[in-house]
Amino acid sequence: MTEMLPPGSVIGILGGGQLGRMLSVAAARLGYRTHVFEPAANPPAAHVAEKVVTAPYDDAEALRAFAGGVDVITYEFENVPTAALDLLESLRPIRPNRRALAVSQDRILEKDFLSGIGLTTAPYAAVDDDESLEAALAHIGTPAILKTTRLGYDGKGQARIMDRSDAPAALAEMRGAPAVLEGFVTFTREVSVIAARGLTGEVAAYDPGENVHVGGILSTTTVPATLTPGERTDAVLLAARILNALDYVGVMGVELFVTAGGLVVNEIAPRVHNSGHWTQNGCAVDQFEQHIRAVAGWPLGDGTRHSDVVMENLIGNDILKVPAIAREANAALHLYGKAEARAGRKMGHVNRIRTSG
Amino acid sequence: MTEMLPPGSVIGILGGGQLGRMLSVAAARLGYRTHVFEPAANPPAAHVAEKVVTAPYDDAEALRAFAGGVDVITYEFENVPTAALDLLESLRPIRPNRRALAVSQDRILEKDFLSGIGLTTAPYAAVDDDESLEAALAHIGTPAILKTTRLGYDGKGQARIMDRSDAPAALAEMRGAPAVLEGFVTFTREVSVIAARGLTGEVAAYDPGENVHVGGILSTTTVPATLTPGERTDAVLLAARILNALDYVGVMGVELFVTAGGLVVNEIAPRVHNSGHWTQNGCAVDQFEQHIRAVAGWPLGDGTRHSDVVMENLIGNDILKVPAIAREANAALHLYGKAEARAGRKMGHVNRIRTSG
Q1: Mean pLDDT score of chain A, rounded to an integer?
Q2: CA angle A350, A353, B1 (to 5 degrees)
Q3: Domain end (from A135, A168, A183)
Q4: Are A201 and A323 in a shared domain?
Q5: How far apart are CA B261 and CA B302, in angstroms?
Q6: Would an 8 Å CB–CB cutoff place A324 in contact with chain B?
């Protein structure tokens, strides 16, 4: 058995958005303090963390001071610059590890990795220019989707190619960045598995949630998902295979397409995941606490679901619905404390608990 | 309809213990920030509040600065000195109001108030000296319990009088403080109602919890309590009567004895209450959020219980059980981040969720 991080220890979190905020609260619930590193001023996590370091990721002095004040480092997003990670890793353990980050930062590395451990992904091919795009389209066909290999999320850095005439415009949207062409996958539904692996190698997974995206952004997650028992088992085993192959420590979100031919891995996120927010009101140990448990060397929670939940994101002006939602029975609101509601900005979410009564 | 406190507003909390800590987290979940006023250094709430003011309650300058930084003031304990409240009240609204505080700060005022609205309490009489104690014992009989009228909690400032020969020692334990002699109540069980009243006067109550005390300190709360339907209804109506009579805004804990002759009010606490911690894992809106909702002018959550829960306090060395509890299914830990485990000190609690499956 590994050592549990002593009570009162400090967990460093890279990134101060809503995920960092909810990680901070979970860490406090287990008796830990948190320091947050975030370039932007007044981030959501600042309201609940013991300390916030406001500095860019190329400020070596700030990174050193941050590392000096914490016992272990984790992160709320996968696009932390490599040089910052190199420096931090020389000072404190980073969990999940660098390999998980490297794989998930690059769509081609990610798909190579997933294929390499025997999992199915969408057909894909690297694209740098007109010529490689032409070759990729010949191989994959249309419709297809062109994505930058790095730094894309919530539908940004993506362009659909419905037929070959769309190709030049799609390539222009990549703005010269390395890209990957992915074939469309015909799926009946999208699900995700939120899984965790502890320091000792134990794995625990939550029941898969069924996701609905609107405009490339997650809108709702419903648990339980509509899956056959076989699909449910496959989804969880597949997630466990990914975690074990990466010697992973922490929570990971694994997005899957359910197809007639089986499960296809869409992408992985080496962190707590929006599609796991339902666990806050469906489980004794939610994904945020599960992540902190893993990072702090605790035994994992078992992931049992005590209630069915529908999670709905509150995006942009959805925040105006809060007074009405506040009056609903069995609706648990989670707001992120963001001052300004911009279009597409995640302002909060609501977990609607379905009781059997 | 009243105004809801705008998102991003600051709620001031007097007291930085575990109740203040959990209030801070709940406020954050609704998009608010918190500032905590606490004389002691490094209080539990400091880890999750945006700001902490460390100063004694007689530091007028610190109180003024604190009030200047917040939009509304609430508190986690009822023994805030009167002069501090006078100053704060001149600067910002205090919720719950001063009357609730005055009543609950003094056992005689409290019992006079409760009797005055037609509720049953233990028989009681004021005691200042040998003579008044003698008269009180003649009226109430033995066994009885002598308590200081103010500042008692968790069994402190109390002395049992099993027969008259115990009287001098009991009085000595009061150290000259005004006291009240209370008759013993023969009860089958102790329950408490956690109830809330909003700014508009709406009242909501959670299902009563059944409490077991050990050594004068709450050990467990079990929900649902073993009550007849009539007792359950009486308990909730009685709590509502108290809240309405005080024009109360916020959450109150009402401790009751269940007797053959009906419900007897033991005491009231004008704040979130240890016996309401189960709501964190049994309800969509827990007592901490309910209190913040009331204080911030939100509609109240309806208090529906989605799961049955047994809450167990982790006191002193109970903290050593944490690694074992961490392995239990459906056990939700809540630790307070206190550095040192002293005998009788509340270090955390665990909510064990009972699933029907």
Answers
A1: 94
A2: 55
A3: A183
A4: yes
A5: 30
A6: no
Check residue A357 and give its pLDDT.
45
CB contact at 8 A, B263 and B234? yes
B51, closest residue in chain A (CA to CA): A47
Q: Of the candidates B301, B323, B334, which has its C-beta nearest A4's C-beta?
A: B323
Q: For B290-317, how does the pLDDT look when each residue is reduced to its tens digit (9 = 90+)?
A: 999 999 999 999 889 999 999 999 999 9
- Is residue A253 a known part of a binding site? no
CATH number where B318 lies: 3.30.470.20
A48 and B CB contact within 8 Å? yes
Please check whether residues A287 and A198 belong to one and the same domain. Answer: yes
Nearest-by-Cβ selection for A284 from B293, B301, B330: B330
Other C-beta atoms closer than 10 Å to the C-beta of A91 total 15
Cβ contact, residue pair B48, A46, below 8 Å: no
Say yes or no: ipTM exceeds 0.85: yes
Q: Residue B211's domain spans which residues? A: 189-354
Stretch B23-50: mean pLDDT, rounded? Answer: 97
Percentage of chain B with pLDDT > 70? 97
Report, as ranges of residue numbers, the positions in chain A whose pLDDT lies below 70.
1-2, 152-156, 356-357
Q: Which B residues in the span 244-263 are in contact with A, Cβ-Cβ below 8 Å?
A: none
Residue B330 maps to a domain:
yes
Percent of chain A with pLDDT over 90: 91
- Which among A183, A206, A227 is the end of a domain? A183
Per-residue pLDDT, A220? 98
B304 at interface of A, judged by CB pairs closer than 8 A: yes
Distance CA A16, CA A157 (A): 23
One domain for residues B165 and B207: no
Q: What pLDDT is recorded for position B339?
A: 83
In the predicted model, is pLDDT for residue B356 greater than 90?
no
Calpha distance A219→A316 (Å, rounded): 12
The structural domain count of chain B equals: 3
- Is A204 found in the same domain as A134? no
Q: Which residues of B touch A46 (CB under 8 A)?
A: 50
Q: Does B7 touch chain A (CB under 8 A)?
A: yes
Q: How far apart are CA B303 and CA B196, in angstroms?
A: 9
Same domain, A179 and A206: no
Q: Which residue has the higher pLDDT, B176 or B52?
A: B52
Do A265 and A150 have their domain in common?
no
Which chain A residues touch B24 with a CB distance below 8 Å?
48
| Cross-chain CB nearest to B333 (options A8, A29, A34) | A29
Orientation of helix A287-295 relative to helix A18-29, angle to 10°: 70
| A to B CB pairs, distance under 8 Å | 119
Alpha helices (H) in B74-174, listed in sequence order: 82-89, 98-105, 107-116, 130-140, 167-173
Is residue B1 scored above 70 in pLDDT?
Answer: no
